Amino acid sequence: MPAMDCPASAPFASLGRSILSLRREQVHSVDGGGHHDSPGGSYDLEIEAFQKHVADIFLDLASSSGDELLSLPWLRELLDGLLVCQDEFRGILFGCRDGRKVDLSRPPLDRFLSDFFERSVRALDVCNAVRDGVDQMRQWRQHLEIAIAALRGSGVGRPLGKGQIRRACKALNDLTLLLLDEKEAPCILSLRNRSFGRSGKETPQHRRVGSAGSASSAGHYRSFSGSVSRSWSAARQLQAIGNNLNAPRGNEVAATNGLAVLVFTMSSVLFFVTWALVAAIPCQDRGLQTHFSPPKHFPWAASITALHERIFEESKKKDRRNSCGLLKEILVTEKCSRQLLELLDPEIEFPLTEEKEKELRQGVGELAEVCDSLKEGLNTLERQVRDIFLRIVRSRTEGLDCLSKSHHCD
Hints:
mainly alpha
């Protein structure tokens, strides 16, 4: 993704900024104009308001039902929440308003910020991997569209023919191959597949697939390395983001006027969101075993920990264990395509009975609903991930600039 600035497009983000402005006015009114004499106290109030807002965002996300969890609308709400948190974080850390000047290069704040910016760089890689996963899901949708078009091509009142059934079966079988996780790939290697969208021109990668046999074929179909290297691992990246993510000690909080708490809170939010994205969206070498247990005294800890546990438990369910992603729409796609394939028995007799054709058309309708939700939801999700990428780049650039100058940010 290009490192360029981009304004927020989400209405939730605008709402978050309005809430932050209101809270700042409340902070100033509570201080009674005395915050110039007590900058630390003023920061304490703003950081407390920030943590309360983070807690409200994740409490709302945690209140979602099981059906809503890890759906595209839920993910959009999660990413909206992250965008709001990023805006508020930057506003407090780099605002330097009302005559206050903060030396970000002063220990131990410089160490907390350096660690945060290092996590941010790794989060950028996760954004790129998620974008590749979204592209992969678009490819799935193209196979769905082929199957739907084939089974609807006869028009209302006209019977389905063998050619239409064969074309739909081919599209759904190809989709099944693409949906399989790497762990399951060896069991289907006897099946040949031409992935959707390949040009007729043979590439070196295609020649390797054809000559190296089944093992390399599985690797080709499961590769999401459009923006990340083939050796890149989402599991290792998450582990690195969460590594040494420890709450600041009392003396560190005092030495930074509470800003160490601000950085720790934002680091925790960033880690959880990237972890949830990897859990939901197909990513290269997915893994969700990373430990995450923030201290309970933080107001947002309970809701984020509860969400982490719910998502992790979801990943251990039998029907999710070998899935390439926990997104609800992936589960529905797998279920609907499998049920429709069962109806499209190769030994099916023609002409179809009225009952059989009714079942097929009902299955096509369910598949079409999934296809429509993917078309709308994936475009929005990709825009949000791009916004997050750009915000991280901008925040990191501002922070590193302040650290390198070794004086108060302007």
